[in-house]
Amino acid sequence: PPAAAMIACVQGSTATDRKHPYGLQPGDMLGFSAADLSGALINLGTWGWPGSGLSHVGLVVERPASDGPHAGELVLVESTCLVRSKCIYQRRRICGVQAQHMLPRVAGYCGKVWRYQLAEPLSSFESRVLTRFCLSHLGKTYDWRGAWAARDLAGALIRRLMCAPAGQSGLHAIFCSELVAAALNEIKRFPTLKPESWSPNRLGRATIDRGVYLPSPLRIK
Question: Model pTM?
Answer without folding.
Answer: 0.82
